[in-house]
Specification:
7 helices, elongated
Length: 150
Amino acid sequence: MSPETPPPAQPENEPSRPGGQAPFGPEAAASAERSLSTLRDPDDGLRILHGIEEAGASFAAYLLLPDTNLAATDILEGFYNSYADAWETFAEFRHDVLEGLGWLQALEKVMSEQGIPDDHLTWNHAAVDQNILNTYDVVHLDGWWHVFNK
C-alpha cells in the first residue's frame, strides 16, 4: 500500500466490516491507487480519499466503473446516487433481486396451488443474470459483488 492510499478501517483478513460493508482488500487498494495516480489536481485526490474513508471498498469499486469521472467535483454524490449494496455471492444478489420483484413468492404460490413438486421447475440463471446485468453495473472486488444502478 502506498502512502497515498488510506489504511483500511479494519484488518484485511476480517470477513466483513460492521454494518455489512465489504472488506477493504488488496483489489480495493489497487483501485484507489490506480485512480489517484491518474489525477493531477490535489483536490480531486482528496475527494477520492474522502470517498474511500467514507465508503471503503464500495467506493473503490465505483472508481472502476467505466463511466465514473474521477475528477468530478460531485463524485461522492454520484456514488451515493448509484450504489445499491454489496453481496458476498452473486447468487445472494440474484435471490434478493428475484425476491424484490416478487417472483419467488409468485412461483411458490403457483407451485403450491397447482401441486407442482419442488424439483420440477428451475430458474434459468443465465437469462436472469443477463437481465440483472442489463439493469445494474456490477463490480467483483476482493470476493464481493458491488452493485450500482445504471
